[in-house]
Amino acid sequence: MATAAQNRRGIIAMTAAMSLFCCNDALMKLAREAFPTGQAVALRTCFAIVAGLAMVVVMGDWRKLPLGLKPVVLGRGVVEALCALTFIWALGLLPLANITAIVMASPLLIILLAVLLRIESVGWRRTVALTVGFIGVLIVMRPSADGFSLAALIALAGACLVAIRDLMTRFISSDVPSTVISLVSTMIVGLLASGMGALETWQSPWRIEMLYLGLAAILVTAGSFCIISAFRDTDVGVVAGYRYSVVLVAVLIGWLVWGETPDKIAFAGIALIVGSGLYTLHRQRIRPDSQLKPEGDKPL
After folding, report:
1. What is the per-residue pLDDT across 169-199, written as a single tens digit (0 to 9) for each?
2. 3-state class (DSSP) for residue 246
3. How far apart, in Å, do the first and last CA atoms of the chain sit?
4. Measuring CA to CA, which residue among 79, 141, 134 is closest to residue 106?
């Protein structure tokens, strides 16, 4: 189990990461009004790689760059890239608060994956909480007679990928610096985005949206470092609950920038997702029944 100081560090890192990611999402949503998904992510990556390299040098981790070639680090980078592409594609079609609420199902999905992979057992209380959270996701996604919105389904796929990414982070040994993990992930995101961009019609980059992408690159680089730090040497059951702080930030930004306000039904779904997630993490904290110990002495 982590110490109180480690968990405090993780809580601060998680809260900072959520705020940084939400501001990045807002800038990417603005950029998506001018650029297709692949181009937007590829251009942001150009800036993000520079920021990531600067962070590696400043933190003195450049000698450990070869550790980024470990299979688990590369695998996490691929999942990170798929997260980015699915999320940013859906971001251009859904209100910021709604897509954020869907992706906030990821802590519930982490528990579900742990159960399916038989690395954690879950009692009836958390089973009920998971069911309630899933109902909340359905409410936000708003199924109709014609079926689910494609954008909402893509966002839900992104939430699954986020859960897998965060679960994989726990398997990366502590000798690999968070700066290196972040930089490797950024590079892989850029490669996959460029491949996707080859199928798109690129727009001229000489417009105000390029400034948005540059700022977004700085924010997502700092956020990536924070989210990796939040899940290392900490108790996930304590730290992960602070992920939900992003919902309030997303609602506020959506209202200030686009005048988007979730309706009562969407707010009800968001409340169910947040409430069930916080209860699930509460149960995980008071009854840590995980059997997963990726580094020999750290439970999930």
Report:
1. 878 888 999 899 999 999 999 999 999 888 8
2. helix
3. 9
4. 134
Residue ranges of alpha helices (H) inside 117-242 are: 124-141, 150-169, 178-197, 209-230, 236-239
CA 38 to the chain's CA centroid = 18
H or E element, residue 111: helix 106-116
Calpha distance 163→83 (Å, rounded): 10
CB of 188 closer than 8 Å to CB of 41: no
For every residue of 53-76, DSSP letters joined together read: HHHHHHTT-GGGGGGGGSHHHHHH
Backbone angles phi, psi at 103, to 5 degrees: -65, -25
Q: For the chain, how big is the Rg over CA atoms in Å?
A: 19
Instruction: Tell me what pLDDT residue 40 has.
Output: 93
What Å distances lie between residue 104 and 84, 158, 297, CA to CA? 15, 10, 28
143 alpha carbon, distance to own chain's centre: 24
CA dist., res. 241 & res. 97, Å (int): 18
Q: Which of 46-55, 202-211, 266-275 has the lowest mean pLDDT?
A: 266-275
pLDDT score recorded for residue 294: 39
- For tokens 């965060």, the residue is 166
Share of the chain above pLDDT 90, in %: 29
Tell me the two tokens of residue 237: 């059951």
| Residue type, position 262, single letter | P
Global confidence as pTM: 0.76
